[in-house]
Input
Amino acid sequence: MNYIFIDSQDGIERVGVVEDGQLVEFYMDEEDEEGLAGNIYRAKVINVLKGMEAAFVDIGEEKNAYLYVKDALPKELMYGKEKVNIQDIVKGGDDLIVQVLKEPTDTKGPKVTTHITIPGRFLVLTPFSNRINISRKIEDPLEIDRLRGIGLDMRKNDLGFIFRTRSQGVDKEQLIREYEVLVAIYKKIQRERNFLPSPKLVYKEMDLIHQTVRDVFGPHMERIIVNDRKKYESLLNLQDTISPRLEEKLYYDKRFSVSSHADIMRQIQSALARRVGLGDRGYIIIDELEALTAIDVNTGTFTGNRSLEDTVVRTNLRAAEEIAKQIRLRDLSGIIIIDFIDMKEDKDVDLVLNRLEDCLSKDRNRANIIGITKLGLVELTRKKVRNSLSSSYMNPCPHCRGRGRILNKSY
Output
């Protein structure tokens, strides 16, 4: 069964996506702690760091946001080859329109950009580009040509956009209507550029619940279960925006609770564990570090019944499937390094990488496989928007301070 569940109790919101009976996405937020990612602000530059090619800007939140030079480039300089310094673009006291790319962490403020984007259900407006891009998950050449033709007809004032995966098969009139809505939102944001006060929130992205339903709900989803009456009614109000069939699949069940579903709880616990079993084919170790996430594959007691190479390949193939699942479920991001068990044959390496890529393609936050390092490690990156699942559930150990070990008594 495929469904979305929304469990809102005791001031905590738990939102999950289940596909084929497996929990594939899970997010948890406190109701009074709204996310910043996607929000657009009229911000004030506090200071410019020449040596870091960045600037700190005040968006009205607890921590100042940081703006890198590449995210501050004006539209006319974005595709130029000349090097531009941050002090040539912004100066202390300047007012800017910025959008939050990454949520703040314990040690860093949010990351922002002046290259704002406005997402809809089928399109993402990209005003700082005049290009018409199509999701790489749309592979049908005829559909790509159809969408590109529609895009050329409806683009206005060089405001580019991206056709999202779910735009596949959507009629032209519906796509044009959404584009016009997104353009109207952008023009309204632009009008705020010269109005006080600063800093000021000028556009708020949908909250976790509405964003998940907007981005995930589709014909393959059989139902959405909500245990909070107000949130149920709030979702009903989005029917015209999301889908005319939303009401048919939206269920209010005040008795629903994540904690009462043993299978969901088991999968959440697995997503918080350092060691994840691969059935009878070994296990993987996942370590989230400050700079990157390291994943190690081990055969454990699995010995196979053919040859060592066959055992290794089968373990790596099963690990590739589980790693893709855990990356999505844990919402791991940034640099991810995978140490598969060494394989001798290039064809086996390609087989495992293709399996990993295929499984990662199911993730709406697309991961990019960079390649294999000289040490035989697979390197990939995944865009960071939210903090990982573990940050919501776990606190650093006060004794080891996150090291996983404590000093022995003889020290």
Notes: The mean pLDDT is 89. Residues 259 and 265 are 6 Å apart (CA to CA).
